[in-house]
UniProtKB/TrEMBL annotation:
Transmembrane segments: none annotated. Residues 22-252 form the PBP domain. This is Extracellular solute-binding protein. The keyword Signal applies. Keywords: Signal. The keyword Endoplasmic reticulum does not apply. PANTHER family: EXTRACELLULAR TUNGSTATE BINDING PROTEIN. It comes from Teichococcus wenyumeiae. It holds the Pfam family PBP_like_2. Residues 1-25 form the signal peptide.
């Protein structure tokens, strides 16, 4: 009897072991197409764990230049777009790829270059600084990648009345890469470049580079976030994506952004409630 009971128990255990496991609950997750500056500055590494802990929603970040990130949103390959080129963002909404743009935070751009400053750019007038670079034909590294930083750089050249493409291959170099790569290239070649302050603060390989031009109101750098329109792409995870946006602009999210510092320096300044953001 004992032997029969033991064999029966073993058979039951074997049967249970061979049954397919119950499927785990599907992970709640979203894809965010964002700029290299939010990723390379370390901001996402700081705020996303707090969001996931609060909501249970995991976030996958695709870090690209702003233009490319918007293209990802247009194709429906992301649920959220988090970028920094207001004109391009408003166009994205006008085209129907999002129904609303939310301001999130800001910082500023800086002109960095060799500390000796052979072009004489030091000060707080970015237009004058760019004119000096062009006149001296001093080496300048451009991201050249349709990013928010690249778009801002081109607008500033236009304000200076200069077409930098005329210096291409001589003093103006477009690398078609992100902010980190542009900073490394400039550091290696003693060149000038425009950088967002967040990536600059987090950048370690500065070598002889320093901040030369800052404080000009034309260097203001605003970030916005948008839900990719589920009416255009039905597979967009609208509920989870909206939860991410709502958290970013909430007190908890805004406090998390403000708390992110490197060496005592704050990288981004929340302004979700600014109607002009």
């Amino acid at each position: 009897m004992l032997r029969r009971n033991l064999l029966s128990a073993l058979a039951t255990a074997l049967t249970l072991a061979l049954l397919p496991a119950e499927p785990k609950a599907q992970e709640r997750s979203i894809t965010v197409a964002s700029t290299t500056s939010t990723e390379q500055s370390g901001l996402f590494g700081h705020i996303l764990p707090a969001f996931t802990k609060a909501t249970g929603i995991a976030v996958r970040v695709v870090a690209l230049g702003t233009g490319q990130a918007l293209d990802v949103g247009r194709r429906g390959d992301a649920d959220v777009v988090f970028v920094h080129d207001r004109a391009a963002e408003e166009k994205f909404v006008a085209e129907g790829f999002a129904t609303r743009r939310y301001p999130v935070m800001y910082n500023d751009f800086i002109l960095a270059g060799p500390k000796a400053d052979p072009a004489g750019t030091k000060g707080n007038d970015i237009v004058a600084a760019l004119k000096h670079i062009a006149e001296k034909k001093a080496p300048f590294v451009s991201r050249g990648d349709r990013s928010g930083t690249h778009a801002a750089e081109l607008r500033l050249w236009q304000l200076a009345g200069i077409d930098p493409a005329t210096g291409r291959g001589v003093w103006y170099r477009e690398i078609g890469q992100g902010m980190g790569a542009a900073l490394n290239t400039a550091a290696a070649s003693d060149a000038y470049l425009l950088s967002d302050r967040g990536t600059w603060i987090s950048f370690k390989n500065r070598q002889d580079l320093g901040i030369l031009t800052e404080g000009d109101k034309r260097l203001f750098n605003q970030y916005g976030v948008m839900l990719v329109n589920p009416a255009r792409h039905g597979h967009v995870k609208a509920a989870e994506a909206q939860a991410f946006i709502d958290w970013l602009v909430s007190k908890e999210g805004q406090d998390a952004i403000a708390a992110y510092q490197i060496g005592g320096e704050q990288l981004f300044f929340p302004n979700a409630n600014d109607p002009n953001g």
